[in-house]
Amino acid sequence: MTASRTKLLAAVPALFLVSLAVPARQDKEEKPAVTKAFIDGTGLGWRQMGEDDFVNVNCDKDTWVWKSKTELYCKGLPIGVCRSNKQYTNFELVVQWRHNKRSGNSGVFVWVPEKALEKLKPNALPSGMEVQILDHGYAEDYEKKNKKKANWFTTQGDLFSVGASKWKPFPPVSPDGRRSFPRKDLTRGFGEWNHYYVRAINGEEVSGGNEADPRTGYLCLESEGSPIDFKNIAIRELP
Q1: What domains appear along the chain, each with residue ranges and CATH number?
Q2: Band (201; pLDDT cuts 50, 70, 90)
Q3: What is the DSSP track for 94-143?
Q4: Taking the model in full, what pTM does it have?
């Protein structure tokens, strides 16, 4: 991290994503095989999040199923979200995710305002900042169906505002100016675990932005039509 970027982070509220692929199969004692700094969400103020930390918003009762204290299964239907019990302003978040089906679509929302969740009907998503979770097959199917390049999104961890929320994405930016595109391709395909660290960066920065509005809200996990697993969700609140 350069000195100029450090000053930027200190002065301007910003959202960043660091994406790290982890092995598809891990024994209990096996650590993620990465060569960069790995933020695993343990110690020094990190708190593991589990079933008691999330509330179903507009999905079926069986859309979200906790397999264990740390692993959550989402069947993908109906489209919707579960949200955190409390709202967060400044924080770091780590989460591992794995699509269970080719062309899967999901995401993690941050800074979702309470008003956006009130009376949210099934098959609808709230306003907020979305950390995209797409399988590579999604882009492949889009290009095959539309006979053109998928240049307005990627499957590597886009960041973008949804609904009434606003922000200013860092480059590289999508053609419509809404998405911060990744600087590197690090995402593994369906059936394999990936690792997201959301905040400022000390590893592989892939996308980011600032001037987000609002900058306080709920965390939400997204159900969007395809089965997906989440695990080892942890958060550390910051001043």
Answers
A1: 3-237 (2.60.120.560)
A2: very low
A3: EEEEEESSTT-EEEEEEEE-HHHHTTPPTT---SEEEEEEE-HHHHHHHH
A4: 0.84
